Amino acid sequence: MHREWPLTGRADQWTRAATALRESGGVVLAGPAGVGKTRLAREVLAEACRHGRTTRWVGATASSRGIPLGAFAALIGELGAGSDAILLGRLGGVLRADVEVLVVDDAHLLDDVSATLLHQLAVERVTRLVVTVRGGEAAPDAVTALWKDGLLARLDVPALTEPDTVRLIESVLGGRLESVSGHRLFTVTGGNVLLLRHLVAGEQRAGRLVPVDGLWWWTGNPGITPELGDLIDARIGLLSEPERRLLELVAFGEPLEVGLLATLVEPTVVEAAAERGLITVEPTGRRLGARLGHPLYGDAVRTRTGPIRARRRRGELATALAATGARRIGDALRRAVLTLDSDLRADATLLTSAATEAALLADWVLAERLLRAATEAGGGFEPRVALGQTLSWVVRPAEAEVELAHAAALARTGEQRARVAALRAINRFFLLAEIDQAYQLLELSSSADREAGGTDDQTDPPRPEYSDALRALFAAAGNRLNEAREYAARVLDQPTASSFAATWAGYGLIMVHSLAGREDQLEALVGRVVAEALNAPETAHMQFNMRYFQAYGLGLAGRPGQARECGTWLRDLPGRYATMARDVVAGRIALDTGEVRTSARLIQAALPFFPGHGGGWTALLEAGVAQAFGMAGIPRLAQEALARAERARHPGVRCVDPELILAGAWVAAAEGGTGQAIERALRAAELAGESGQFAVEVVARHAAVCFGDTGQAARLTELAGQVDGPRAPAAAAHATALASQDPDALLAASAALEEAELVLLAADAAAQAATLLRARGHTAPAAFATARAAALAQRCEGARTPALRAGTAPLPISAREREVATLAATGLSNREIAARLHVSVRTVEGHVYRACTRLGLPDRAALAALVAPPETDDPVSRA
Fold first, then answer.
1. What Rg do the C-alpha atoms of the chain give, in angstroms?
2. pTM for this prediction
3. What is the rounded CA–CA span in Å between residue 660 and residue 624?
4. Backbone dihedral region of 768: left (phi > 0), alpha (psi from -120 to 50 degrees) or beta?
5. Which residues, 6 or more positions from 440, have their beta carbon under 8 angstroms from its beta carbon?
6. CA–CA separation, 411 vs 420, rounded Å?
7. pLDDT at 82 over 60
8. pLDDT band at 765 (very low <50, low <70, confident <90, very high)
9. Checking DSSP bridges between strand 287-292 and strand 256-257, what pairing results, if any?
10. The 3-state secondary structure of 822-852, one letter per residue
11. Which member of 45, 145, 469, 607 has the greatest number of CB atoms within 10 A?
């Protein structure tokens, strides 16, 4: 931790203050306590010192306020004895003669005599002044006259913005801060630097602000250190018992509707607390909501409220919420959480319902806690089955199986037996990778088998829709898209289909439409199925998966702008899981748009949430990382990601196989093996096409075009007629232009791809145009195409694809000679290169010889060094 924090986020204020000091005779820095006025004044003073000015610093205090010239006591001590009038005259003379820049800190605390002296200095404009005052505090008239009469410029110093707060913390910690942790630190401190310093120091010492996998995470609630407590106490001041009760109620329940608060506390107490700044009252819809005056007040109040008193306060709030009917969104969840930690009796129905709301907020820790409390309160089957699915969702499959087995024992109807059997099948299929056992459980969900001690009640026999729904999901995951479509239709075409069955069948069909390129059907389907999922806590979480595949499908279609909208609902959700979901969606979109390093960084941040095969997600995400690093031209990191993806292959999730093969193509491309890259891209395309993943086939064939394959125009043109969105037609145009060796058409295709935000593909098309124009000796058009390709590549965070390497960093050698040289740069021997390219060693040696001759290089090592891709220790940090 730095002793002196950097002056982050104050460049504008520093420039304006320094200018005012230089041109206006001085400046008044005004703002709340702790925002950094004093630090800014020090920096302005330091600048004056660097220019050789004589300076002096004085600071007023509350204790010196009652003493004439008390703030100047240190200077007066150097002047000898005398009356106040004599000392004032001597002091003024010294300041005018010997001090060019005077800083007066906390001038609102000056006594009247000192304030008068300061005012005189400002009027005379001999000594330049930097004055700090606390906003909202009473100050002597002579001090307020400094800016009211225009003697000094006034500069308001606000709290730091959230981006500046995050940058400041990251500079102090020496590493990147996880986004939700940064948001929480800003929210808790309000951008107040003084509070932030004490909080960060305390949370580091407490082990709650720690680095994990290259990111700093803040977990738990802020601890109020003695130093931080003293600061907060000074702000809050002395409290009467009614005021203390008010602050406790708001601390445990904020935001609280003012009308509800008035039923618990005298309205006059609420009004007085608002006037003192202890609470703030702001409109929340059609009502007024009360919050504490600063987020840290709540932590301080909660810390100092005894457990019995705290439980009573929560009980009072929960009872008051229940009395109002808890009609507002979130009221049920707040009431449940308050009840959970109060002296009231737990309500299993309330807790189970609240768990659904917690799931919608991606707060799985809270959802689990609520569901466990509901089971302990005798909730029976419903909270138990939801708990099992919640544990499965957070990748704790063994614990999930235990809870689901308990739920199976509690099932008393055919519908309940079918639901729990279905959830156990999902857990077995995806998390435990027990495919056969999962299908066996499907049979149980469509028969009257009484697993785990069920009854013989036949009044509610299980319906086949549960089995059909999961067969649709499993078939989609297994890359049997037609089968998935048929099973999903059996469920979704039934008007009486349950929400549970519709959720799982719909999710399978969303996957099918995304992969097949049926963008036109996605939006309505996702809207319907998400609405079905939100009806129960065990399916509410599936909206994350559905929104991801909607974004994935829109990206495949060439609509990244619309794909971004799929993630907007995640923006304000708290917690690590919401961060993960945001990163996964944003990382996939960045891959489509060509922000290669951003894509790798975001996806890698999400990977710790998917241990092992992660239910099939790990291989898909690692394949995305491999593609991103391949596009960036960093073969080592691309190969490592691909190796991790291969190790994480899920035996039942085969729909990701084309992506894995395509990732291998990008690895080969990064290594310089464009021939092998084309072969792998076409293999990925063939597999995708055979299974009905036509949108993925477009992407794979277009990659082959970018690698230089001229034989894809016919198939891409055909696909453009059956795959929705602008990507397929643009890819077909690109392939046709390359096949006809038409640089103008390549540039037109580049423009179409850029319009669709497929920026890296646009860069490749422009680079290919540049290569053709250069070969034909068209110097000016080639320069234009090269500049366009380079500009687009710059937007792609320094991507280095084969087309860009050839088009923007041309060498007077053939494409095959460049390929051989690039492979040599990866450390392959001539024999290994020959095996990779399916040619003889002598042929490879000939390519090396001719390339070295044309470039005037002495040997193979020099050639390899010339074309070697740049490596960095931290390739992602440049994003």
1. 34
2. 0.70
3. 8
4. alpha
5. none
6. 8
7. no
8. very high
9. antiparallel
10. HHHHCCCCHHHHHHHHCCCHHHHHHHHHHHH
11. 469
